[in-house]
What does this fold into?
Amino acid sequence: VQLVESGGGLVQAGGSLRLSCAASGTTFKINAVAWYRQAPGKERELVAAISSGLSTYYADSVKGRFTISRDNAQSTLYLQMNSLKPEDEAMYYCALSQKYFSKIYYFSPDYWGQGTQVTVSS
It folds into this structure.
């Protein structure tokens, strides 16, 4: 399985970015997928996740600002990030699981992408 993120960059506070994650080597449409982030000196945290059935989970810190979505035909995961804040600055990682979760909140990854940096200037 390979996961390749793109779309990170530098944005001003209040701006928007859309991250993409292209997956290969797996039957993407049946997999749960997610976005994590890690800021310097902090633990990696789950930002958002989406199941094969389109159930979603969002961390409280991003609810109402971020939207996770998937295009199964393109085997691609997206994260639309609006109203970005300096505290959103981090390395963002795509993750994929081949496990079943009764609730997407329980997501745990089997595979990781290499990450894409999001920098938010104040």
About this structure: The chain has a mean pLDDT of 97. The chain is about 0% helix and 50% strand. The longest strand covers residues 17-24. The two ends are 37 Å apart (CA to CA).
